[in-house]
Write a structure and sequence with these properties.
This protein is mainly α. The protein has 11 helices and no strands. Helix 5 runs antiparallel to helix 6 and helix 7 packs antiparallel against helix 8. The longest helix is centred in the middle third of the chain and has 19 residues.
Length: 223
């Protein structure tokens, strides 16, 4: 709500000063993030599309943020279940990012996550593993350590290994994610417990029912 108040003031300022399409696009992209984080997905998508239109109008000066806008729209379309459109948008974003930044660059990580998610939905586990591993490497390299948001990438990677039937590799990624999440979020955070449940499921799938049961009982006790 506070962000929306600030955005309304910014819109008035832009209307008075008319600084050009690049500034308008940046404002729309912030609006898109606010709406998306508030679960107002349709409003977020409209703002992202307006941002892309503005950055396209800005020409060469808008190309840097255009890749970010395409990436955001890819995430939104994936969330809406429009997987092939999400793939096409992510591939456009990736091509533009590679042209501007080269590789490695941390901005490519989110694009790789979208492509990996689409591959996973399509049952292409091997391709999903490759994309998620690439995203994880970019995220870790960008800060020189394991940042908290890397944990979700590792969980996605574990899910991709499950698609391939590699439960040992899946468990290893879930355990790595847990080691990142637990110190930051605390033992009883729902995201920590969900990751722990994945580890319990891996034990069960590997034939260690008693260890899986122990982990599940721990999740129940902490919930």
């Amino acid at each position: 709500d506070v962000a929306r108040d600030i955005l309304r003031i910014a819109r008035v300022a832009l209307a008075v000063s008319d600084p050009g399409p690049q500034a308008r696009g940046r404002l729309e992209l912030v609006q898109a993030r606010v709406e998306y984080d508030s679960s107002r997905f349709e409003a977020g998508r409209r703002a992202t599309e307006a941002a892309i239109e503005a950055f396209t109008e800005a020409g060469a000066r808008g190309r840097l943020k255009l890749g970010e806008g395409l990436q955001m729209l890819a995430i939104q379309t994936f969330g809406a279940g429009e997987y092939e459109q999400a793939r096409a948008l992510a591939e456009r974003s990736e091509a533009l990012q590679l042209e501007l930044f080269g590789e490695p660059h941390p901005d490519l990580a989110r694009t790789a996550l979208v492509l990996g998610a689409v591959d996973l939905v399509d049952g292409r586990g091997d391709r999903a593993v490759a994309q998620f591993r690439r995203a994880a490497a970019l995220q870790a390299e960008s800060l020189g350590r394991e940042p908290p948001h890397l944990a979700q990438t590792l969980i996605n990677l574990g899910n991709a290994y499950l698609e391939l039937g590699d439960h040992v590799a899946a468990r290893a990624e879930y355990e790595r994610a847990l080691a990142i999440l637990e110190p930051v979020l605390g033992r009883d955070d729902p995201r920590v417990l969900a990751c722990l449940a994945n580890i319990g499921g891996s034990h069960r799938s590997l034939g260690d029912a008693s260890r899986g049961e122990a982990v599940f009982r721990e999740v129940i006790a902490r919930s």
